Amino acid sequence: xxxxxxxxxxxxxxxxxxxxxxxxxxxxxxxxxxxxxxxxxxxxxxxxxxxxxxxxxxxxxxxxxxxxxxxxxxxxxxxxxxxxxxxxxxxxxxxxxxxxxxxxxxxxxxxxxxxxxxxxxxxxxxxxxxxxxxxxxxxxxxxxxxxxxxxxxxxxxxxxxxxxxxxxxxxxxxxxxxxxxxxxxxxxxxxxxxxxxxxxxxxxxxxxxxxxxxxxxxxxxxxxxxxx
Length: 228
Fold this sequence. Notes:
The protein is an alpha/beta fold. Helix 5 crosses helix 6 and helix 6 (139-160) runs parallel beside helix 8. Helix content is 47%, strand content 9%. It is built from 8 helices and 4 strands. Strands 2-1-3-4 form a 4-stranded parallel β-sheet, with helices on both faces. The protein has a domain at 3-122 and 163-201: Rossmann fold.
């Protein structure tokens, strides 16, 4: 039976680093983007999955930064999903990531009932500031988006109990927790693993008092409690 792993996490929260580290450990990603102006080592996303998610959000009247409350998969989207799944039929271990998967996940679970999930999160103020720098969003909008996505992450964690790690730890701690995640996922651990990650991938941004929200702070504390 194939093992399929999906990385769940908010934009600007370390999802690219996590999926690339899993690739180093033996997870097959297929044809993914390895160059991106906002990710020094690429976002490692399958363009077909990205286009499917964009079409899904558009069909439901939303976007990645204005997620719909509910999301319906039309027949055409299900066909596209199944074609993507079939394209990986020759791989024993394969996986994918796109932060929008937190919005579209229910449809993937119907297509891959044994889907194995892993999660990652980052401090809400750092994510909000990163979105401000990249997209020109207000800090308030960035924090509200962080809340929307990470409420979903906690919802799915409560339902499926998968390993989650923080992107805010030291490089040494991150790699230790990543090793634990790989063990829990029963992925082959490559002795040359973890060359992808280095601390420079996680730019610490100067914050001010406006980059604070008690709802986000409470969610962040909840994520810390359930993380590895």
